[in-house]
Design a protein that fits this description.
CATH topology of the largest domain in chain C: Rossmann fold
Oligomer: heterotrimer
CATH architecture of chain A: Orthogonal Bundle
Number of helices of chain C: 10
Order of helices and strands of chain A: HHHHHHHHHHHHH
Radius of gyration of chain A: 20 Å
Number of strands of chain C: 10
Radius of gyration of chain C: 19 Å
Distance between the termini of chain A: 59 Å
Number of helices of chain A: 13
Helix content of chain A: over 70%
CATH class of the largest domain in chain C: Alpha Beta
CATH architecture of the largest domain in chain C: 3-Layer(aba) Sandwich
Structural class of chain A: mainly alpha
Strand content of chain C: 15-25%
Order of helices and strands of chain C: EEEHEEHEHHHHEHEHEEHH
Structural class of chain C: alpha/beta
CATH class of chain A: Mainly Alpha
Strand content of chain A: under 5%
Chain lengths: 310, 358, 262
């Protein structure tokens, strides 16, 4: 019985981490779905969002320095969202609009450049020390889970899972049902064609990157609350790649499922296989899993098969 | 007008296809190479060698390797760091196991071993492309660094996990280790880099290079005219990894002397080399050199200006550097995706017409 | 049109059916192409003409039917086999390698004829250089033939549409094909360019004996240069014969004039 419980805890812990990965991967999927760009800077966006949020909330931030007061949480979050929208607008104007017709590889490398810019900027503006993020999410272990199932689950992780679920539903509705959602899907398929039917690419991209920025904010809040706002948050972006491979680059549910699988897979492998190979399996397990997927099912679990035409 | 190709007509295909068909170019390059070999060694000192010249040469070689794969064949790789590690550790183990082996042979073997590893990780490229492939190379990157960290055999079970190069002689002259002279290190590395650059240029302008570029530009059409994507991509991975492996071996043996896998070969190294070829010019041998020079010199320049001149803290200067790198990447990708190499070409064309504007 | 004394069949497709998911691109199409002839494939848009070429080329694999080329029957073609077997083609949307010059693009067409390996390439001096020059000479003949000497070093991305199509033809010719598949080689050309292209196609057919399969919309061109014509509509073959026969065929007229289908 004790062994099973342990396995269950490992799996649940993995699921929770997986939800966190999924949150970041969601941002990727959005941008890819709507613009065909793989945004390497997504993780850094999450970091940047968390840094900005911290700045609004704390007394050693710019905001306090300029205005003499800090914002309460219910104001700080929308303020940060506004910043992310502003950032999306800047990115579209200064980078994206010039790269409209380029290859995907060029766009991808441009987002790598963007990641570096945001990282450097973040460090310069906000400093690179670890910052605790406290927006009132209940901390500590869930008593309910402990009492009812004898399982150790953190309240934070439950909140994260719930938030992710809500986000997914909102996004799914957004893409399927709204006019803008349809336009986004058109743009993802073919920039030129979308342009030719009057879709305004710049507006679409600002919208998409804004939404992605807000998703990044949510991810940043979750991760930041969990382990403090620090540089390693931007490396989560790299982990999102295997998530997307598993789930398919264009699928919102895929990002969730992929995140969960990677999260669980990593944890289980680390706990059960780790001791045999000296540990730190988490460094590469996700990628190897993704690699295996690439060989057998390149479009991921939910992605679309690409039919080439000549 | 002092730079004209007027009157230089080619009367054979061979002359037309030479690397430097314009006489002035030829003389210029010969002059540069001669200067490099004859004029530099007497003046080279340890600071210059270690801070500028050796890293420049090593990164140029790594850049050449990555350019072959990404610039010419269009296969994105984020695993350069990991492959450099393979070359480094291969050279370390080979020297340890076969101390009598000629160092040049060691380097070549390290290259071949890395080529083999590269081909293994390149196999997925047959079915996937673009950033899917980038993920596969990330798998290689993280796995390899982890492996060199964990598996004691690679670092001779040293308690620090680091590997340190043994002093090695090349035909009687010490080229590695703290006692080796800068001039010796420099000439040895320079020779290798120049020969390999020439080989790369030859391959790239022949049948195989064209096949690579065809795959890069339109792999479906390439396959339909009879190019075999499997062979072409694997060859690109093999040659690229060979170059990167030798670069890694030189990086360890001659430039740094001692390395620890996570710091020396992690994902940042992969980005570093990627930036070299983006800034220098994708699909250009010259570009690899220009990019390497840029990437090695600019941080030094920045540090001198910012820390020395403006009194900035060196941590802050580091952040500015990162910011600047990002800006430059974006700038080059938007303005001149063919990088410094194309800018150089444009400058030469303007020179040909000078003083006329067009 | 040339004077054929041999009625040897070079390529035969038999009962080819091709679908993508629910879309039936080709249904039970059979016809043959005789050695040395100019065979046109015509039909309204979406009839499946390009798909047919793609099947012959090995890019698409039909769900049903067989392809017999040079006497060898198979259920699907592999692109590499097609290329090595002497099948070359041009594409509807120009598939040139934009990063390379005209000369280099056409040289890639020689790829199947060149073989010197990596080591010799790295060395260049010696066998690789000799091979390169030999093939360069052949490519220069093609360049002369197509009258594109002036643009040989130009990156193809910079060329106007008509010239790009000519370069693509050059790349196909460089492979010394036995069967040349041309997918709308004259699309988007003006009268003069069309006349040039027709001339090149006919000369290729007459001088080198290359068999030609041609998709084309311009009826006057088709009638002028074809030996035989096959007509497709909604993925099915509706006529097959000489240009005169096809022109008089009622179902062909209906297809083009858009009589409603049940």
């Amino acid at each position: 019985m004790a062994f099973d419980l342990f396995l269950l805890e490992v799996v649940i812990s993995g699921l929770m981490t997986g939800v966190m990965y999924a949150l970041v991967a969601l941002g990727f999927v959005l941008i890819f779905k709507a613009s065909g760009i793989f945004n390497f800077a997504q993780g850094v966006l999450a970091l940047f969002a968390a840094l900005a949020l911290y700045d609004f909330l704390s007394e050693d931030g710019w905001f306090f320095g300029l205005f003499g007061f800090t914002l309460p949480v219910w104001l700080a979050i929308p303020a940060t969202a506004a910043i992310m929208i502003f950032l999306a607008w800047i990115i579209e104007r200064s980078v994206l609009r010039f790269l409209v017709k380029q290859d995907q590889i060029i766009l991808f490398m441009a987002t790598i450049g963007l990641a570096f810019v945001l990282e450097g900027l973040g460090d310069l503006l906000f400093g690179s020390d670890v910052k605790p993020l406290n927006i009132g999410i209940p901390q500590g272990a869930s008593d309910w889970a402990l009492d009812t199932f004898n399982l150790y689950i953190e309240k934070l992780e439950i909140v994260a899972a719930a938030t992710a679920a809500v986000l997914v539903i909102i996004l799914a509705i957004f893409f399927q049902k709204t006019r803008i959602g349809r336009a986004l899907r058109a743009v993802a398929d073919d920039h030129q064609a979308a342009l030719s039917v009057g879709v305004s690419l710049d507006k679409i991209w600002v919208i998409v990157w804004s939404v992605s920025g807000i998703v990044a904010l949510v991810a940043g809040i979750m991760w930041g609350s969990k382990s403090g706002v620090q540089f390693s948050l931007s490396l989560i972006a790299l982990k999102a790649l295997p998530v997307l491979i598993l789930g398919g680059f264009t699928s919102v549910p895929g990002a969730i499922v992929g995140g969960l699988i990677i999260g669980v897979g990593e944890k289980v492998a680390e706990v059960y296989l780790g001791p045999y190979v000296g540990g730190a399996l988490e460094n590469w397990f996700a990628y190897m899993l993704a690699l295996a997927f690439l060989l057998f099912r390149p479009q991921g679990l939910f992605g679309e098969r690409i039919i080439e035409r000549v | 007008m002092f730079y004209r190709e007027n009157g230089q007509f080619k009367s054979s295909y061979r002359a037309d296809q030479a690397i430097f068909p314009i006489a002035q170019d030829r003389w210029f390059v010969i002059a540069v190479v001669l200067t490099a070999f004859l004029a530099v060694p007497p003046f080279i000192d340890q600071y210059w060698a270690n801070a500028v010249i050796l890293p420049f040469l090593v990164y140029a070689l790594a850049g050449l390797g990555l350019n072959i794969l990404t610039g010419y064949c269009g296969q994105v790789s984020l695993g350069t760091g990991g492959f450099m590690a393979v070359g480094a550790y291969a050279s370390f183990k080979l020297v340890g196991l076969f101390p009598e082996l000629n160092f040049l042979i060691v380097l070549l073997l390290s290259g071949f071993i890395t080529a083999g590893v590269g081909m293994i990780f390149g196999l997925p490229s047959l079915r996937i492309k673009g950033f899917y492939l980038a993920v596969a190379t990330l798998a290689a990157q993280f796995f390899l660094v982890w492996m060199f960290n964990k598996v004691g055999w690679f670092y001779d079970y040293s308690p620090t996990g680091m590997i340190t190069v043994r002093p090695i002689e090349f035909f009687g002259v010490l080229v590695t280790g703290p006692e080796a002279g800068s001039a010796a290190k420099y000439l040895f590395t320079l020779s290798i880099v120049i020969v390999m650059a020439l080989a790369a240029k030859n391959i790239v302008r022949g049948r195989i290079g064209r096949a690579w570029m065809a795959i890069r530009d339109m792999d479906i059409a390439a396959e339909l005219i009879g190019i075999r994507p499997l062979m072409a991509k694997l060859t690109a991975f093999a040659v690229s990894s060979f170059y990167i492996g030798v670069a890694g071996a030189l990086y360890f043996s001659i430039y740094l002397g001692a390395v620890e896998p996570v710091e020396a070969f992690d994902i940042n190294r992969s980005f570093y080399v990627l930036f070299i070829i983006i800034i220098g010019g994708l699909g250009s041998v010259l570009g690899s050199f220009l990019g390497a020079a840029f990437i090695v010199l600019v941080p030094i320049l920045l540090k001198n200006v910012m820390v020395g001149g403006m009194g900035m803290a060196s941590g802050t200067a580091g952040h500015v550097e990162i910011l600047l790198m990002g800006v430059l990447i974006i700038f080059f990708l938007i303005v001149e995706p063919h990088g410094l190499a194309r800018l150089w070409q444009i400058a030469k064309e303007k020179l040909r017409l000078w003083p006329f504007p067009h | 049109m040339n004077d054929r004394t041999q009625d040897q069949i070079l390529l035969e497709v038999d009962a080819i059916s091709l679908s993508f998911g629910g879309v039936h691109a080709l249904t039970d199409v059979s016809f043959d192409i005789r050695k040395g002839e100019v065979r046109s494939i015509i039909g309204p848009n979406g009839a499946g003409k390009s798909s047919m070429l793609n099947v012959i080329n090995g890019f698409y694999h039909p769900q049903q039917g067989t392809i017999t080329y040079q006497g060898q029957k198979r259920s699907q073609m592999k692109p590499h086999e097609a290329a090595r077997g002497g099948i070359a083609r041009t594409f509807q949307n120009i598939a040139l390698f934009r990063g390379m010059s005209t000369l280099d693009n056409i040289m890639t067409g020689r790829n199947t004829q060149m073989s010197k390996g990596l080591f010799w390439q790295a060395l260049r001096i010696g066998p690789a250089l000799r091979e390169e020059i030999e093939n360069r000479e052949f490519v220069e003949h093609v360049i002369d033939f197509l009258e594109i000497q002036a643009i040989r070093k130009t990156p193809v991305g910079k060329l106007p549409y008509g010239l790009q199509k000519r370069v693509e033809l050059g790349r196909a010719l460089a492979a010394e094909p036995t069967l040349l598949l041309l997918d709308e080689p004259m699309a988007g050309m003006n009268l003069e360019e069309k006349e040039d292209m027709s001339r090149f196609i006919l000369e290729t057919n007459e001088e080198f004996g290359t068999t030609i399969a041609l998709i084309e919309h311009d009826m006057s061109v088709v009638m002028d240069i074809s030996d035989r014509v096959v007509v497709l509509d909604y993925g099915r073959k509706i006529a097959d014969g000489t240009p005169e026969e096809v022109r008089a065929n009622q179902s062909v007229i209906d297809a083009y004039l858009g009589v409603s289908h049940d």
